[in-house]
Amino acid sequence: MSFAARPGRAIFLAAFLLLVPLLTGCGLILGTTVVAVGAVGVAGYTVYKAGEGVVNTVVPGDSEKPAEKPAEPETALAKEATQTFPNPKPKPSTAVVYYHNEFRAQLDCGIEQAYATANSTLPRMALVINGHALNGAAGEISAQTVEDVPIVLKMQSAGPRSTMLSIRVGANGDLKYSQLIYNLIKDDLGRPASSSPAAGGQEL
Amino acid sequence: MIRAVSFLCLGVFLLASGCASRQARQSVKPIPGVTNASLHILVDHTRRLPRSGTFDWGVCFFQIPSELKVDLAVLDQRLHEALLQELNKKGFTQKKQQPDYLVGYAVAGGDNVNELSLDAAYGADLVMPPLDPSTAIRYQQGVLIVDIVDARKKRLLWRGAITAGIDLNVNEEQKQRRIRAAVAELLRHFPKV
To answer: Do both A103 and A28 map to the same domain?
Structure first.
């Protein structure tokens, strides 16, 4: 029986044929996104964002907001930083890493200056220095509190004006006290404390 | 003929509704004290994501302007409490000795936060996805990132990032609630996306 004789079946077939490329199109899109993941260099990983899948940029995901409205550049964080800094362009924030009970952050000075400053800062905090050594690009200071809690500061040169400082307080670490030591050393370096979060302040 | 057209309409409808539901699942739930929130999730698709297991804390990373005078210890405590609560709900328990996974986080603000700098902070002992510098994500607002890392192989399995504008003029209780909501929203997509 020919399709001419059964027009309903012919239309059904046409409808089916129309759906096939539509479905295949979705498959192609899926394939394209997988390629895109490879193209952004995240081998073995898939990236998702709110709203739709597999892109490498971050966009507002709240669908209730107008899509064309850009993300506000003046967020609460950015706004406050701009207001506080006298310079129009604020300095980048220092990264602080806390891992395995050890506090790590950078100081914007050479290792000799960092070492000398730390040696003068610790006694001002009523810490007793038990030993210290500076050997070229690396330095270490051992101290203790009046309660005999051991404190170890290690310094590693990261450039002529950059030193990586690590602080360990006791065996289990103390983020708050480590932050305090770091901030006081930064203050003593005679630079504006532009990047160190001060202990005892507000929290996010 | 009517039947054929009906089939066609039904097919198109099902296709369209399927796409719509997928879109809705990926939306960001409202978080108090947060504006313009968006999610970004990186998943290691070469292995099955864990559904349960033990974990301990991994790297804690802060990049916050000093002017905000943030007490990192309090922020750290709040984040750990929120993460512990959500992970316990999902069947993960904290174990200090030989955990299956390390759960790390990064908190950053301003416009200088780059995915590459975050990766660099983890140090050489963790296997991170090889990002192309030209395509690395530059977070433009406040960001909270949670990482799930295979503790034995030191490989990143899952990374969830939530970026948003943050209202600082809220009280302590609201801050705690905000962190819990943000962590819950992020981990809603773990282990499934």
So the answer is: no
Q: What are phi and psi of A40, to 5 degrees?
A: -80, 0
Contact A200 B43 (CB under 8 A): no
In this structure, the answer to whether residues A52 and A133 fall within a common structural domain is no
pLDDT tens by residue, A10-59: 666 555 554 544 443 333 232 222 223 333 335 677 777 763 332 333 33
Distances (CA, A) of A186 to A95, A161, A195, B97: 14, 13, 9, 35
Residue of B71, B126, B128, B177 to mutate when probing chain A, most A C-beta within 10 A: B71
Find which of B42, B68, B180 to mutate to test the A interface (most A CBs within 10 Å of its CB): B68
Tell whether ipTM is more than 0.85: no
Output the pLDDT for position B45: 81
Average pLDDT over residues B10-24: 43
| Residue B65 touches chain A, beta carbons under 8 Å | yes
Regarding predicted confidence, which is higher, B12 or A6? A6
B96 vs chain A: nearest CA distance in angstroms? Answer: 11
Is there a contact between B67 and A97 if contact means CB atoms under 8 Å apart? no
Specify the number of domains making up chain A. Answer: 2
Domain that holds residue A30: 1-59
Do B110 and A93 make contact, defined as CB atoms within 8 angstroms? yes
Phi and psi (nearest 5°) for A73? Answer: -70, -25
Annotate A114-130 with DSSP letters as a single string: HHHHHHHHHHHTTPEEE
Q: pLDDT, tens digit, for every residue of A124-164?
A: 999 999 999 999 899 999 999 999 999 999 999 999 999 99
Query: How far is Cα A187 from Cα A164, in angstroms, rounded to an integer?
Result: 16
